[in-house]
């Protein structure tokens, strides 16, 4: 078995430059453990006291998330894991489960001092292995953080797009149903006998009402009184389907006085046809406006996505309006702002110059800081998010302030550290603020925090030309 283990160690890429006698020392001081399929090799929280090398089989790597185990990775034969020289890892952050029959070589930490002092090449290879492991883990966590952010934005966009898209569908359906009634109504209109002067008067009435729509506001009781008066007039004058007309007439502020003027100018037989024609025009106008407004909202969201990701630009610094980036980010996060009943205050310096920035990267900064601020205020009444910008000499300053519970003083020095997070599992990887700091430093700037109960302010400072 010893020769078999030695042969496997010689084939491991990380040990390619390690002398044979050092690998022999490793074999002589280690031991072998075996696990059957499905058996737990290690549990979350277990003390990590051994360097481990998988000889046969595979070990599934699972992390707890939202109360259940989530598959993260697999440890394959020849892979080095567990404790490494100079590593500060003390406890397992996850669970390892055997996939098939698994054989593992172990070296206890009690032998590390001798290894470090007497076997340089072996130690060096394991330190390089630890460096690669940290880099790979960081890259994977950053990718997870990006995917989590993308998931939040996707959910928000789906929520924001749902209402206008449903309005378009509903409006198109109503318009189609409404237009289906035109042939029958047209018969009555074409039989009308009147003068050009009356036709002009009716046109001025209907399109004047359309042009003035929305300029007057009515209370609920005033609206109901108007609808009751219209219904009474229409029924007294034997206008068919009177209850179907009052809503659109009230929407466009058609009054009983208008209808009386119309009645005086028309033959009694023509009055119902003209009144229904007025209703047709107003309903069509209302539905078209609803569809146009919903389509405009969808277009605004799509434009915001494009602006947020800066899809049509190369990843280089350009002069850009940071207010546009912040507003776009607020559009992307609007669903969270509304869901948490957050009052938004924007205090933007109007003549703020356009700095040289990486637009998409800076949008990540605004997203992380604003999203964190909203999360901090979750469940609190009277939540207020304030965003303020100003110029100080050659520097651009952005302040993002929330009135959440604040960050404890003991944690304020740690919040920018990689993997540090105060959020529960599944809500944060601890890389958001680290990414913010990296991006701002790319712009030769700095991000700082000042926090006390009821007020937390992140201050982003960077030069106009970085």
UniProtKB/TrEMBL annotation:
Catalyzed reaction equations: ATP + protein L-histidine = ADP + protein N-phospho-L-histidine
A Gene Ontology molecular function term of the record: phosphorelay sensor kinase activity
Residues covered by the Cyclic nucleotide-binding domain: 14-116
InterPro entries to which the protein is assigned, alphabetical: cNMP-bd_dom, cNMP-bd_dom_sf, HATPase_C_sf, HATPase_dom, His_kinase_dom, HisK_dim/P_dom, RmlC-like_jellyroll, Sig_transdc_His_kin-like_C
Record-listed E.C. numbers: 2.7.13.3
Keyword Nucleotide-binding in record: no
Pfam families: cNMP_binding, HATPase_c
Residues annotated as domain Histidine kinase: 285-466
Enzyme class name: transferase
Cross-referenced PANTHER family: HISTIDINE KINASE (PTHR43065:SF48), SENSOR HISTIDINE KINASE (PTHR43065)
The protein's name: histidine kinase
Source organism of this protein record: Chryseosolibacter histidini
């Amino acid at each position: 078995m010893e020769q078999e283990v030695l042969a496997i160690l010689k084939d491991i890429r990380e040990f390619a430059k390690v002398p044979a006698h050092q690998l022999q020392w490793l074999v002589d001081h280690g031991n072998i453990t075996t696990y059957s399929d499905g058996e737990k090799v290690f549990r979350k929280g277990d003390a990590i006291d051994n360097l481990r090398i998988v000889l046969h089989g595979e070990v599934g790597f699972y992390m707890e998330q939202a109360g259940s185990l989530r598959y993260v990775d697999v440890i394959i034969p020849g892979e080095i894991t567990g404790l490494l020289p100079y590593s500060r890892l003390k406890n397992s952050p996850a669970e390892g489960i055997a996939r098939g029959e698994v054989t593992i070589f172990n070296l206890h930490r009690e032998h590390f001092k001798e290894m470090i002092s007497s076997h340089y090449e072996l130690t060096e290879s394991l330190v390089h292995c630890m460096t690669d492991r940290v880099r790979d883990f960081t890259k994977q966590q950053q990718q997870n953080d990006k995917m989590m952010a993308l998931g939040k934005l996707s959910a928000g966009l789906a929520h924001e797009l749902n209402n206008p898209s449903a309005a378009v569908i509903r409006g198109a359906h109503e318009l189609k149903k409404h237009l289906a009634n035109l042939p029958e109504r047209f018969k009555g209109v074409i039989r009308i006998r009147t003068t050009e002067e009356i036709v002009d008067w009716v046109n001025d009435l209907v399109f004047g009402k359309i042009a003035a729509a929305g300029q007057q506001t009515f209370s609920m009781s005033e609206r109901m009184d108007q609808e009751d008066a219209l219904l009474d007039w229409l029924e007294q004058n034997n206008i068919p389907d009177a209850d179907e007309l009052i809503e659109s007439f009230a929407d466009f502020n058609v009054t009983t006085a208008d209808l009386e003027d119309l009645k005086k100018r028309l033959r009694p037989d023509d009055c119902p046809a003209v009144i229904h024609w007025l209703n047709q025009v107003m309903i069509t106008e209302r539905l078209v406006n609803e569809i146009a407004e919903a389509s405009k909202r969808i277009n605004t969201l799509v434009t915001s996505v494009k602006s947020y990701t800066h899809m049509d630009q190369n990843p280089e610094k350009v002069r850009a309006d940071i207010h546009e980036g912040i507003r776009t980010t607020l559009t992307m996060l609007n669903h969270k702002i509304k869901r948490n009943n957050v009052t938004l205050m924007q205090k933007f310096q109007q003549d703020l110059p356009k700095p040289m920035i990486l637009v998409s990267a800076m949008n990540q900064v605004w997203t992380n800081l604003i999203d964190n601020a909203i999360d901090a205020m979750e469940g609190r009444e009277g939540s207020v998010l304030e965003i303020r910008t100003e110029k100080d000499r050659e520097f651009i300053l952005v302040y993002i302030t929330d009135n959440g519970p604040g960050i404890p003083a003991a944690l304020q020095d740690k919040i920018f550290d990689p993997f540090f997070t105060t959020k529960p599992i599944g809500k944060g990887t601890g890389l958001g603020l680290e990414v913010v700091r990296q991006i701002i430093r790319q712009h030769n700037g700095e991000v700082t925090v000042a926090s006390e109960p009821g007020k937390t302010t992140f201050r982003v400072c960077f030069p106009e030309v970085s």
